[in-house]
């Protein structure tokens, strides 16, 4: 589903990612664990085409993402939840969810209906402006927005950060249920406290370098 080979990049001449190797199979939920500043968000942004690579390749199915424009990613079935949510404050919840569909001139509302069924609470405040929501509620909306286009692959950057425990648990319930949809999911976290029971494989990132560790041993 997603394969990254020898990815390296720098920001303002400062090396951030070094020879990253990562793969996600169809239907897998994969963890990306590292402290703040380790390179998690930079890697997510690189996959989404928001940062230019110095070297390496990113393949999604048969598409070379490193040669594709960022705005085309949603058309490929890739959804992205940024760490800072990136909602439009004065848009309603539903308008925020619809933004990627409008951008891609996609009038098919079946996916929106499915998201409301998956997260009924979203429907209950669909007419509220995003700026009136709590941080946790905004994360749910950002997840819903990612889901309307992320029919195959979801990139979730620190989805639980700054969220109250009850809403973090709700986010985890929704993410767990995605296994039934055979979605591939990459979740970044700083301390592995939420996703350890649902991930199939875990990558550890430290100072821009990545490694795998024995997830089964951690869960046991």
TrEMBL record:
SUPFAM superfamilies associated with the record: P-loop containing nucleoside triphosphate hydrolases
Signal peptide limits: none
Single GO molecular function: branched-chain amino acid transmembrane transporter activity
Keyword Lipid metabolism on entry: no
Ranges for domain ABC transporter: 2-220
Any one GO BP annotation for this protein: L-amino acid transport
Keyword Metal-binding carried by entry: no
PANTHER family for the chain: ABC TRANSPORTER ATP-BINDING PROTEIN (PTHR43820:SF2), HIGH-AFFINITY BRANCHED-CHAIN AMINO ACID TRANSPORT ATP-BINDING PROTEIN LIVF (PTHR43820)
Protein name as annotated: ABC transporter ATP-binding protein
Source species: Leucothrix arctica
């Amino acid at each position: 589903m997603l394969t990254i080979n020898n990815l390296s990049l720098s920001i303002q001449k400062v090396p951030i990612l070094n020879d990253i190797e990562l793969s996600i199979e169809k239907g897998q939920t994969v963890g990306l664990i590292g402290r703040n500043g380790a390179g998690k968000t930079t890697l997510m942004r690189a996959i989404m085409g928001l940062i230019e690579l110095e070297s390496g390749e990113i393949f999604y199915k048969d598409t070379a993402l490193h040669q594709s424009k960022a705005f085309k990613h949603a058309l490929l079935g890739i959804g992205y939840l940024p760490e800072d949510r990136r909602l439009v404050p004065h848009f309603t919840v539903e308008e925020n969810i619809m933004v990627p569909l409008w951008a891609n001139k996609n009038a098919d509302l079946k996916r929106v209906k499915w998201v409301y069924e998956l997260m009924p609470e979203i429907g209950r405040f669909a007419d509220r402006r995003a700026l009136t929501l709590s941080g946790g509620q905004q994360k749910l909306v950002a997840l819903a927005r990612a889901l309307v286009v992320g029919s195959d692959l979801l990139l979730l950057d620190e989805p639980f950060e700054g969220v109250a425990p009850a809403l973090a648990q709700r986010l985890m319930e929704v993410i767990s249920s995605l296994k039934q949809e055979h979605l591939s999911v990459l979740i970044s976290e700083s301390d592995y406290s939420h996703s350890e029971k649902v991930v199939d494989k875990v990558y550890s990132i430290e100072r821009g370098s990545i490694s795998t560790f024995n997830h089964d041993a951690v869960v046991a």
